[in-house]
Design a protein that fits this description.
three-stranded antiparallel β-sheet; 131 residues; alpha+beta; Multidrug-efflux Transporter Regulator, Chain: A, Domain 2; OB fold (Dihydrolipoamide Acetyltransferase, E2P)
Amino acid sequence: MRSYTIGQAARLLGVSADTTRRWADAGKMRTHRDESGRRLIDGRDLAAFSVTLAEGSAHDEEASYTSARNAFPGIVTAVKVGDVAAQVEIQAGPHRLVSLLTREAVEELGLEVGMEAVARVKSTSVHIDRP
């Protein structure tokens, strides 16, 4: 499973690296250190935290969020695969995006919970890119 640096996690959560460090220091998200001593967050832990964070900010009426060119970089929080179709959920800061696509597309992209992904929204379609 992929792990994310504090800076990468901050970008995916839509906050500063300092905020992410404070959350980690407060025990809100678990971290571990790599061989270089950098603090890392497991992808699954980050995915779970991003959902919790978004649920808490859903009632924040002061917040204002925008999307440049309808691209939502985030983290995959759920992948449900059927025989032909699949459903992928991405938490992009306070935004939860759900895309219905083919099983083949999910397998080709190698999508799994905790992975970084970009949801692109056009009209009512959500397209997923893998960086």
